[in-house]
Write a structure and sequence with these properties.
seven-stranded parallel sheet, alpha/beta, Rossmann fold, 16% strand
């Protein structure tokens, strides 16, 4: 693996220890693929759920990980072998800002309200041209995000989106397809800025 990461990829996903195995498997695969691709895996730094599996996969692939953790979780969430960045404050705003600031692109795995909060903020920023229009992609394991995409279709039909969601969000059935989407989008961005 290269000593300097190719790209910094922020990954969102569940941190629940009740996360179904199919989502854990996709998360582990994503972490491993990011490591083997020489990318820095940026995430919440947790040990459970999609986050824990992602980190285990990245560590197994001898990858580099930057965890962004809120101070309230210190002592219960950290994993060894991860560079930790600590956010402070009485809400999660600083943590989200640190996640976005430490990333060139975003991949979302299945998760709950926190995952969707992070995901929608990233997609809205891309649509508005903020945060450098960072590419965003879903790992749509077993159709987890299908209802979300149907809602986005409805938003577009009802003229509540500026364009089709496909303009600002990738939808990949596998971790490998998500990484391919992100790398392709980053290459386009790099070419456009030259």
């Amino acid at each position: 693996m290269a000593s300097d990461p190719s790209h910094r990829i922020a990954c969102f996903g569940s941190s629940s220890n009740l996360t179904p195995q199919k989502y854990l498997d996709a998360s582990y695969e994503l972490g491993n693929l990011l490591a083997k691709g020489g990318h820095l895996c940026v995430n919440g730094g947790g040990k459970d759920g999609c986050m824990g599996a992602l980190n285990r996969g990245a560590l197994a692939g001898e990858g580099k990980i930057r965890g962004v953790i809120h101070e309230m979780w210190i002592g219960e969430e950290e994993q060894p072998g991860i560079e930790m960045v600590v956010a402070r404050g009485d809400d999660l705003a600083e943590r989200k800002k640190l996640l976005f600031d430490n990333a060139d692109a975003i991949i979302s795995l299945p998760g709950g309200l926190g995952t969707f909060d992070e995901l929608y903020e990233a997609v809205a920023a891309r649509q508005l041209g903020l945060n450098g229009r960072k590419p965003v992609c879903l790992v749509n394991t077993d159709g987890f995000f299908d209802a979300t995409l149907a809602q986005l279709d409805r938003m577009f039909e009802d003229k509540l989106l500026r364009g089709p969601w496909q303009n600002v969000l990738g939808n990949a059935p596998t971790a490998a397809a998500a990484v391919e989407y992100i790398v392709t989008e980053l290459a386009k961005t790099s070419t456009e800025s030259e």
